[in-house]
Specification:
The chain is an alpha+beta fold. It has two domains: about 35 residues; about 130 residues, FAS1 domain (Roll), CATH 2.30.180. The chain is built from seven helices and seven strands. A seven-stranded mixed beta sheet has the order 2-1-7-6-5-4-3. The longest helix has about 35 residues. The protein is globular and about 40 Å long. The chain starts with a helix and ends in a 9-residue tail after the last strand.
Length: about 180
Amino acid sequence: MKKLSLIIACAGMFVMGACSSDSSNQSTESSTEAVAGGQENVKDDDSQQDVVKVAVGSKDHTTLVAALKQADLVTSLSNAGPFTVFAPTNAAFDKVDKATLDGLMTDEQKEALQDILQYHVTVSAIPSEQLQDGQSLGMVNGQNVTISVKNGKIMLNNAATIVASVRASNGWVHVIDGVLLPPKK
């Protein structure tokens, strides 16, 4: 009788363990489903933010964030990098003709928008102190941006000035006061 009780107790523990294991698998599966969609959807309030989350967290970059979404570049810039992003402010976008900007935010102009946005990104993490007068940076779109330094101000293509810099987990975000337009190919 003691032997039968022991066997029943062991079987009961085995069944309980299997049920417990099964529910933890379901929990893991639903956690995985919640994160689907790319690294940009991972919620992490403790780690340093990536370049996209830096922009998303800035009230001065809502136009840039909308453009990144329209161009389907959020996932790419949320990856490990490293990236240096020259991030135009909303005021910088306000200097662009409204009809031109509105036209770029359409599905028909997605490639042109991607080209412009990729002209604001280089695949390396460059702090502003390392940017030098006359330096040429290869941008993601395959073209170059020229750096000039005058009176302590760092400019890109003599068209935009770096006004602030923020370190991100996957590179640098340099806030600029102008939108860079790639040269005609």
